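We were asked to recover a plausible sequence for a given structure. The inputs and outputs are reproduced exactly as logged, with field labels preserved.

PROBLEM: sequence recovery
POSITIONS: 401
GIVEN STRUCTURE:
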C-alpha cells in the first residue's frame, strides 16, 4: 500500500496549495494544461537539484570538514540557491515563454506550481525514508514555503517582461528576485535546523516569519489581481474638442454636453513628448511645459532599430529593440512590446519587418495608433518619427549601418 499511499499523501497538500494560488485570479483562469506540465517539470527538477546539492555539499565538506560551520554553509550557499535556481529555470524555460503567461499574477501562479511540483517530489522522498506522519509538518510549512520563496523570482519574471528587451534591463530584475528567493529559502532551512538542535524558540520565530511572508505575498497577489490588464476594457482617453453641431466644448468620442451629438475623434492629435499634454495641430512648442514638439536629431543609443521613450526631463531612453520579424504591441505580457498604461489595449498594434523597413498596423485599438500626430490604421515608420499608442509616446529610430 505504501506505493499508493505515500505518493497520494505527498501530492495532496501540494495540489491544495496549487488550487489556492491558481484560484487567486479574478479576471482570467490559468491554463490547466500549462499548470500540469509546469508541475510535472517542477517534480522532475528535483533530480538535478539533488545532484547539485550533493556536489556542493561535497565541495564544502572538503574545504571545511563536517562540523556545524560546514552544515551552515551548505544551507546558505548550496541548498537555497540551487533549489531556487532549478525551479526558476523550469518556469523561465517553459511557462514564461508561453502566450498564456500574460499578466503579472501569472508570475506567482506558475512559480508556485513549479515549486509545489518540486515539493511533492521531495515529500515522496522524505516520506519514503522517514515516518509518513512527517507530512503533518511539511504540508502546512515546507510545501507552502517552497511556493512563497519562489514568488520572489516569479514576480521578477513578470516585471522583466514589461521592461525593455535588453539584458542590461532584464538581468538585474531577474537576479535580484532569484537572490531574494535563495536567501529566504536558506534562512528558512537554517531556522528549521536551529529549532531541532538548539531551541524551540527558533521554531516560533520560523512560524512568525512564514506568516509574515505569506501576508506579503498575498498583498502582492491582491495588488496584481486588482490591477490585472484583464480587469476591464481599455480606458477611453478622450481629448477636449468643440462640437461640430453646436460649437460647445466637449470631449472626443463622447456626446456633446449641450446638444448630445457624438463628438468624433480627431484625425490628427498632437501630444507633447515630455508632459503628454494635447497641443493644437502644427504647434512647435508645448503650451504647458515649453518643450520642443519635434525631437532633436538622432541620439545613437543603439545601432539596432528601436523605440525610445522620453522622460519628463527630456532624456531619451530605449524602450524596445525591434529584434523580431513580427512584434505585437499591447498591455498584456504575452505581447513582445509590453506597454503598461490604461490607454493601451490588450492587443494594440503590430509591427512587421519588410526588408529594411518597418511597417506599423493598428489592431482596432480603443484609443488609436498615431504616427506624427495622425491617427493611422497602417503606416511605414521613418527615422525619428513620433509614434503613439493610446497616450504613450515613443520615437522610432531606424537601424544604423
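RECOVERED SEQUENCE:
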Amino acid at each position: 500500500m505504501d506505493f499508493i499511499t505515500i505518493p497520494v499523501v505527498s501530492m495532496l497538500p501540494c495540489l491544495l496549495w496549487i488550487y489556492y494560488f491558481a484560484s487567486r485570479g479574478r479576471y482570467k483562469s490559468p491554463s490547466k494544461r500549462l499548470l500540469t506540465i509546469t508541475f510535472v517539470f517542477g517534480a522532475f527538477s528535483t533530480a538535478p537539484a539533488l545532484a547539485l546539492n550533493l556536489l556542493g555539499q561535497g565541495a564544502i565538506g572538503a574545504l571545511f570538514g563536517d562540523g556545524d560551520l560546514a552544515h551552515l554553509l551548505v544551507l546558505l550557499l548550496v541548498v537555497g540557491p540551487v533549489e531556487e535556481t532549478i525551479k526558476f529555470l523550469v518556469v523561465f524555460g517553459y511557462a514564461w515563454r508561453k502566450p498564456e503567461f500574460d499578466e503579472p499574477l501569472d508570475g506567482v501562479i506558475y512559480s508556485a506550481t513549479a515549486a509545489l511540483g518540486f515539493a511533492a517530489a521531495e515529500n515522496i522522498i522524505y516520506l519514503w525514508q522517514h515516518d509518513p506522519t512527517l507530512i503533518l509538518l511539511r504540508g502546512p510549512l515546507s510545501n507552502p514555503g517552497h511556493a512563497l520563496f519562489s514568488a520572489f523570482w516569479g514576480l521578477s519574471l513578470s516585471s522583466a517582461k514589461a521592461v525593455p528587451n535588453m539584458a542590461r534591463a532584464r538581468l538585474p530584475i531577474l537576479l535580484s528576485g532569484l537572490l531574494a528567493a535563495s536567501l529566504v529559502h536558506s534562512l528558512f532551512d537554517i531556522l528549521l535546523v536551529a529549532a531541532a538542535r538548539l531551541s524551540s524558540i527558533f521554531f516560533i520565530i520560523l512560524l512568525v516569519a512564514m506568516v509574515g511572508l505569506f501576508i506579503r505575498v498575498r498583498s502582492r497577489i491582491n495588488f496584481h489581481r486588482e490591477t490585472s490588464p484583464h480587469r476591464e476594457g481599455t480606458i477611453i482617453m478622450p481629448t477636449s474638442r468643440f462640437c461640430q453641431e453646436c460649437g460647445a466644448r466637449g470631449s472626443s468620442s463622447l456626446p456633446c454636453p449641450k446638444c448630445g451629438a457624438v463628438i468624433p475623434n480627431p484625425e490628427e492629435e498632437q501630444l507633447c513628448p515630455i508632459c503628454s499634454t494635447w497641443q493644437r495641430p502644427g504647434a512647435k512648442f508645448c503650451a504647458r511645459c515649453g518643450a520642443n514638439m519635434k525631437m532633436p536629431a538622432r541620439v545613437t543609443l543603439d545601432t539596432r532599430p528601436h523605440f525610445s521613450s522620453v522622460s519628463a526631463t527630456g532624456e531619451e531612453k530605449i524602450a524596445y529593440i525591434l529584434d523580431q520579424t513580427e512584434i505585437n504591441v499591447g498591455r498584456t505580457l504575452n505581447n513582445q512590446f509590453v506597454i503598461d498604461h490604461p490607454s493601451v489595449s490588450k492587443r494594440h498594434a503590430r509591427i512587421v519587418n519588410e526588408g529594411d523597413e518597418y511597417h506599423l498596423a493598428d489592431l482596432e485599438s480603443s484609443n488609436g495608433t498615431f504616427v506624427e500626430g495622425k491617427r493611422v490604421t497602417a503606416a511605414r515608420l521613418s527615422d525619428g518619427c513620433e509614434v503613439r499608442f493610446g497616450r504613450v509616446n515613443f520615437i522610432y529610430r531606424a537601424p544604423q549601418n
